[in-house]
Amino acid sequence: MTIADRSFPKAFYDDPDFNYQDYWSGRSYEHQAEVIAIRRLLNRQLFAHAVDIGGGYGRLAVVLAEFAARVTLVDSSSQQLALAEAFLASHPRITGRQMEAANLDFPDESVDLVTMVRLLHHLPEPTAELAEVRRILRPGGYAIIEVANIAHALNRLRYLVKRKPVPSVALDIRSEETRQRGGIAFVNHHPQSITELVESIGLRVECVLSVSNLRHRLVKKALPDRMILAAERVLQPKLARIQFGPSLFFLLRR
């Protein structure tokens, strides 16, 4: 893999005390659940050029390489792109570029597939970033957008007990301490709000999957990964109908 464009100011994921690659240690179920979702949504299609926006060290870029002749890993963090050089050393068809998601250095209508996974939860108001996705996608191109789901089943129960509606706007879920010290935004979105937003900028929702449905620590402790993942594979399309899981994967088309 080659890396380009390293002249950006430091991003949150440049923090030397936080290694995002280490964060995924011990999270095999969550990672594999997302891989299952991406492979299901892409369904053996082949693309010329895929772009993984906010792709970090390349965790999912290697999955996109199964479906695209060329993959560009985009991240605002120089630290993540440095980690990607080692992680993706054996993947010459993946190139890393440092960019902001709201200002992508790609020509209009030049990309066949875009993914944006675990990025919207840092974007309280993602209109600019999603508009960029639409701009760079060729007509008929696809995007996979992951949404941290404020309306997941457990949250709906919590709000029901409190006799309050589930918020329709992005909800800041940071601790008060994190907010006070100006930590990175961390929000959950309502799937209906995201649906309305993507449709308003010219993207069509083709499919939705409910992902990481069995992420509860007690389930993960009681059952082996292979058993949980077998259930996850079956449940993703079925539970999407009731927006069950904490993470929803949207397949969009321009």
Topology:
Elements lengths: L1 E3 L15 H4 L4 H15 L4 E7 L7 H4 L3 E8 L2 H10 L6 E5 L12 E6 L10 H10 E12 L4 H10 L8 E2 L3 H5 L6 E2 L2 H10 L3 E8 L5 H6 L2 H16 L6 E7 L1
Parallel strand pairs: 1-4, 2-3, 2-5, 3-4, 5-6
Antiparallel strand pairs: 6-10, 7-8, 9-10
Helix pairs in contact: 2-10
Question: What would you note in describing this structure?
Answer:
This protein has 254 residues and is of the alpha/beta class. The protein has a single domain, classed as Rossmann fold, CATH 3.40.50.150. It is 35% helix and 24% strand. It is built from 10 helices and 10 strands. An 8-stranded mixed sheet has the order 1-4-3-2-5-6-10-9, with helices on both faces. The chain has a two-stranded antiparallel sheet with strand order 7-8. Helix 3 links the parallel strand 2 and strand 3. The protein is globular, with a radius of gyration of 18 Å. About 2% of the residues have low confidence.
How would you describe this structure in keywords?
globular, two-stranded antiparallel ribbon, 24% strand, Rossmann fold, alpha/beta, 254 residues, single chain, eight-stranded mixed β-sheet
Total number of strands: 10
Query: Considering the protein shown, what is the CATH homologous superfamily?
Result: Vaccinia Virus protein VP39
- Trace the largest sheet across and list its strands: 1-4-3-2-5-6-10-9
Tally of structural domains = 1
What is the chain-wise order of helices and strands? EHHEHEHEEHEHEHEHEHHE
Task: Give the second-level CATH assignment, the architecture.
Answer: 3-Layer(aba) Sandwich
Broad structural category: alpha/beta
The fold-level CATH name is Rossmann fold
